[in-house]
UniProtKB/TrEMBL annotation:
Residues 493-704 form the ABC transporter domain. This is ATP-binding cassette domain-containing protein. InterPro entries: AAA+_ATPase, ABC1_TM_dom, ABC1_TM_sf, ABC_transporter-like_ATP-bd, P-loop_NTPase, Type_1_exporter. Residues 178-459 form the ABC transmembrane type-1 domain. One of its GO terms (cellular component) is plasma membrane. The keyword ATP-binding applies. It comes from Aeoliella straminimaris. Gene3D superfamilies: ABC transporter type 1, transmembrane domain, P-loop containing nucleotide triphosphate hydrolases. Keywords: ATP-binding, Membrane, Nucleotide-binding, Transmembrane, Transmembrane helix.
């Protein structure tokens, strides 16, 4: 635990921050932590004892850690600590901050200092030491996690190393995987009770006909097999927990990553189609569970059975070694190229899925003359390519299956011959031969099942490769300046010879403008002149290749992206989410209440038409925007932008297509003296630009 004294609060919180970063595999020094905390405290000034958790959460966000301030019961704290979360609790009577870094059998692990020192504390002791309680049952905690799935993203990417990526994904589950391995080992040993009992029964019958030994053997066999069944049931339960965690961790990673994806990562991709690869998490779940249950059990049962055979006779030891070598060499040699072909097969499936999505998205185009035939021909072409790749992949898989089936027949025959000869020579008892045959039959039956698990393994590697396309999406840097944009009087904007890398006027001739805080200006340009590119630069979605862009005397690249977009709003391309009208305006912003929603709708002239809908502002909108018209959807984008009361508001082309009545209503709101924001309107219409304070031309020669 770490002391929070008034004179040393910054250093103390910085020490907590350093410890949290190191627990989440983020390297940071104390000086950097103090710097981040200083910026956060400047951005959110106030009483330390009321805001220290807020400071800690915002500092974690600046350091690429996901932090949330929540109320938890002690049981929930224990569960989260067991699952790997780091938790920062209240202060005790001595002013120490409780930092929970893990869970041990004896209690929770509390971090002490910025390094690896820990001590164990019981839940009851932790509860008794807490002096800040929001309720008798719940306490306020800051939950901290690394946002990216097991740190699997790195600069080199892992597209060419899917097996390495797979190992990284399942690394957090190793503690539970070890439980399955131990259970499988004991279950494999207990399953030997059947051949050993048969051996004893054969020997007993050979030397006498007493019933009592048979009854004893039957009872003992039942006990061993029942215990083995119990272990198998426990394995199944643990595997189910692993499946749930895999799903939750992949979903949490993407839920964090996708809203923060660097726009440049999607330049050559179609985002909605790319996200289809998340469905491969189901393959990841099922195949990992099957391999842990059946694959591991087969491997360990085979190992244990071969060990027993080795003790029967040296020749059987040689048989074991020969069988292992044959299986290993045969499967490796015969499986060359299977992983690559499996990945190629998976790619073709997604190409076909993407084509079907295109057909459903472009309804008018594919209903036109020739459209249905075009849709069918392209689908037929992709299907033919898939079948060709599938045939190539199955050829490799089939020869592995034939190999294991053939080996099953040969090995069973060889063992019977060698075992019979050893019995005739008196070097092996009849009971041992029967037991050996039962063991080898089990081993060979397991080998026969390898075909299913080999195919599952190839599907698993292909699924991990597809998920990798999502994991490797670059996210925006989370660090940056905080608090410099909260002026309350609009933001100034300075553009100096700004250039883009696209082939528009902005790229060819550059753009220079100086806009004062609170000013209303228009930027006029023809289609393709670079207006949208300029708007995206202001919003931090794209970077200029030359020139300088300053917002409020700061370079946007120096600002934390989420805080930049809390001050800057853009209304451009229509983006409707599958939710209610109110949620389409809020977008998760807790400070936007229902009254804010209704006010924003009223300012854009939408409220009157929306309240006539069956559910009013709670009316669900489809991704297509229905039941709203195209112009209503554009107005909704403006309402979304102004609902957050931004310092800088950018309207990108939406006004150009509005009828005069709606345009007058919206401009009256945007240009109202009651609004303090700086307004930039991107337009192709000079009559719209004439209604603003100034205008700039985005073309070869700029004129103010």
């Amino acid at each position: 635990m770490l002391t929070l004294a008034d004179s040393e609060s910054k250093t103390t919180l910085a020490t907590v921050l350093v410890r949290l970063c190191r627990e989440c595999d983020v390297d940071i020094e104390l000086l950097r932590a103090e710097q981040v905390l200083g910026e956060v405290q400047e951005a959110w000034p106030g009483d330390e004892r009321r805001l220290w958790r807020k400071w800690l959460v915002e500092s974690c966000e600046s350091l690429h850690l996901r932090a949330r301030q929540v109320e938890l019961t002690m049981e929930e704290v224990e569960d989260l600590a067991k699952d790997g979360a780091k938790l920062v609790g209240s202060r005790d009577s001595s002013g120490e901050i409780q930092v929970v870094v893990g869970k041990s059998p004896k209690g929770l692990l509390l971090g002490e200092g910025p390094f690896e020192a820990t001590r164990v504390i019981a839940l009851t002791e932790l509860l008794a030491s807490t002096i800040e309680q929001s309720s008798p049952a719940q306490h306020e905690w800051v939950v901290v996690e690394h946002p990216e799935l097991t740190n699997i993203h790195d600069a080199q990417h892992l597209h060419d190393r899917p097996i390495e990526r797979l190992l990284r994904i399942i690394r957090p589950e190793w503690s539970d995987i070890w439980i399955i391995l131990v259970f499988a080992l004991f279950a494999g040993v207990l399953n030997l009770a059947t051949p050993i009992a048969v051996e004893a029964l054969v020997n007993t019958v050979a030397f006498g006909q007493l019933l009592q030994p048979v009854v004893v053997l039957a009872v003992m066999l039942f006990i061993f097999l029942a215990f083995a069944a119990l272990l198998r049931a426990l394995q199944t339960y643990v595997a189910e927990i692993i499946q749930r965690r895999l799903f939750a961790r992949v979903a949490a990673d993407l839920a964090y990553r996708l809203p923060r994806v660097d726009a440049r990562s999607l330049t050559n991709s179609y985002g909605p189609e790319l996200v289809n690869r998340f469905l491969d998490v189901a393959t990841l779940q099922k195949v990992v569970a099957n391999l842990l249950l059946d694959g591991v059990s087969i491997a360990l049962a085979t190992l244990v059975g071969m060990t027993v055979l080795a003790f029967y006779h040296p020749w059987l030891l040689g048989f074991d070694l020969l069988l292992i070598a044959t299986v290993s060499i045969g499967l490796v040699l015969l499986g060359r190229g299977a992983i690559a072909s499996g990945i190629d097969e998976s790619k073709l499936k997604y190409k076909l899925t993407a084509w079907f999505e295109e057909v459903t998205r472009c309804q008018l185009g594919f209903k036109a003359d020739g459209g249905p035939e075009f849709a069918f021909d392209r689908a037929n072409q992709l299907t033919a390519q898939y079948l060709k790749i599938r045939q190539s992949h199955f050829r490799i898989l089939f020869r592995q299956i034939v190999f294991t089936l053939g080996l099953q027949a040969v090995a069973g025959t060889v063992l019977l011959g060698v075992g019979g000869w050893l019995v005739i020579q008196g070097q092996l008892s009849l009971g041992q031969l029967v037991a050996a045959e039962l063991i080898v039959t089990t081993i060979l039956a397991s080998l026969a099942k390898l075909g299913k698990h080999i195919e599952g393994f190839y599907d698993l590697v292909a699924a991990v490769d597809k998920l990798g396309y999502l994991f490797d999406l670059e996210v925006e840097k989370p660090s940056g300046l905080t608090g410099v944009l909260n002026t309350g009087a609009g933001l100034s904007l300075r553009l100096t010879d700004l250039r883009s890398k696209t082939g528009d006027c902005l790229a060819t001739h550059g753009f220079t403008a100086s806009i004062a805080a609170g000013e209303h200006v228009a930027i006029i340009g023809a289609a393709g002149s670079g207006k949208t590119t300029l708007a995206r630069m202001i919003y931090g979605l794209e970077q200029p290749v030359a020139g300088q862009l300053e917002i409020g005397d700061c370079d946007p690249t120096d600002l934390r992206p989420d805080l930049l977009r809390a001050a800057v709003a853009i209304a451009g391309e229509t983006e409707i989410i599958d939710s209610s009208i109110a949620e389409n305006l809020r977008l998760g912003r807790p400070y936007i209440t229902s009254s804010h929603v209704r006010h924003a709708l009223e300012q854009t002239g939408l409220l009157e038409s929306i309240i006539t809908l069956p559910d009013g502002i709670d009316q669900r909108l489809l991704p297509t925007g229905r039941p709203l018209s195209s112009n209503q959807q554009r107005l909704l984008m403006i309402a979304r932008a102004i609902a957050g009361d931004p310092e800088l508001l950018v309207i990108d082309g939406i006004l150009d297509s509005l009828p005069e009545e709606q345009l007058d209503k919206v401009l009256a709101t945007l240009l109202s003296a009651e609004q303090s924001w700086t307004l930039i309107v991107m337009t192709t219409r000079q009559e719209i630009a004439a209604r603003l304070d100034r205008h700039f031309w985005l073309r070869k020669r700029q004129a103010a």
